[in-house]
Amino acid sequence: MESSPYQTKQRLIALICISTFVFFILFARLFTLQIISGQSLQAKAVDQWTRDLPIIPKRGDILDTNGNVLASSETAYTVYVRAKSVTDAEFVAKNLSSLLQLDYEGVYDKVSNKGVSEVTLKRQVDAEVVDKIRNFNFNGVYVASEPSRVYTYGNFLSQVLGYVSVDNVGQSGIEAYYDKYLKGIKGQILTQSDLVGVELKDKETLFQPGIDGLDVVLTIDSVIQSVVENVMQLIMRMHNPKSAKAIVMDVETGEILAMGITPGLDLNNLPRDDMQTLLDYGRNTLLTDIYEPGSTFKIVTAAADLQEYKNGNSKAFSDKHVFGSSNYRIIDGSKISCWTSHNNGRHSNQTLSDALNNSCNPIFTDIALSLGKSTFYKYLDLFGLGKTTGIDFSGEQSGILVPQTSVTNGDLARIGFGQSIAVTPLQLISAVCCAVNGGLLMQPYLVKEIKSKDTLAARFTPTVRNRAISAEVSAQLALMLEGVVSGGSGKHAYIEGYRVGGKTGTAQKFENGKIAEGKYVSSFVGFFPANKPKYAAIVIVDEPVGQHYGSAVAAPYAKIIFEQIINYKNIKPYV
Q: Which of 72, 243, 295, 474 does the annotation list as catalytic?
């Protein structure tokens, strides 16, 4: 039976549709393979037909502000094996285990395990051993160079510099915070191989170089840092505390010139098998740990009072105001006393300058309560309390500040003289610098440049966070604090011929919510020259044995730091 023309036409149309559909499927598949998945499939093909060794770039150096190298990299080597290319596993294992000082059985298992593409035998191998391995010309054994981190002075600036992992990845400190700049970009060596991973005889080797990391230049001055670290060691010998720590800051810019904590770590010999020790002594407690500042905080209270008086606030006290002679106050049923009691429990009337000199708690209680919660908390915020400083370092804490909505009169009174508030040492010295530098709260920073040998990648400059007080009030307060050193509780920081200002502090420690008997944090924060402050230092001694007042335990050591800066910078006396 013959098909009708209509049926033939239908079959032809169906054939065309089927053919079109098949071609469409094939085209779509080709489009997917070549266009959409082309790059990934090509990468898989390269991966199947090549074996690669990483080329680890040189990690950038860390330098001090004067260009002295504090952390650098030396070349070390990693030994790899590709078992599928090894022709005599026993011979290779015997010689490599001897050269690398490894267990023979362990090496033999690795060089004979054809099921693994590539395995690392040992890292951080020195050049002499590598030369011997190369002389054997083993099949399937390869050597790749990689940098090994070296710290010029071992335990110098250890909590700031930080350290890297065995893979050369920043783990803490500057090494971690600026890791993306320091680490560079890896390269690789590609070698052609067959499907089972054996290198081809007429193989082609492709070399893709890495890009070395950038150098990081700190604001730290290694000369001043050395002074600080030596002074911290002296404190440890003289007072046997749990720890001693200090910061030296440029009052005008916020640059950190030195940051020392004792005890610390030897960065070239880290206790990697003792994680608790590594954490305890590797942490930068100057910005990760908080404490009650005690009387050093009275600088902030005095600044708030003087500024409010200048603003016309009738609740503020002038510098000429004479406070009452009582040496205590009763606030919410709690007695707040002055430690400088005279004349059977009473001392003479005092001005604000006298109160700073004598560190009289009741007067700063009066100021805080008179200004009130709203006004006083405004200044706490302006001086950066209760929030981080923004320093270029991980782990900074914001301190503890009772919320304004929850603060009681008793809390407010105690905050006025440095209790019921917790700060980091960095927060406090930043606030003090603000109080005496003209009233500007500066953002502290540790790195001033990121660069290569030929190119400047980034430069960091001083940053003003806000204005807290006027330049006039700042100058007035600086002169008052000069009086604390020349004739008050800070007299052990006095340097003949130089105008030093500052404030001492002695705070009892709390443990489990109670005062820890006999445990104190002794401190001093100071600056010079008082008429145009440039250098500031804070010294904190945790749980000194014997003497515990900041005037005796901390102030004399700040004096040594200032004297050494004077010698180093050849600063002439003002007379």
A: 295
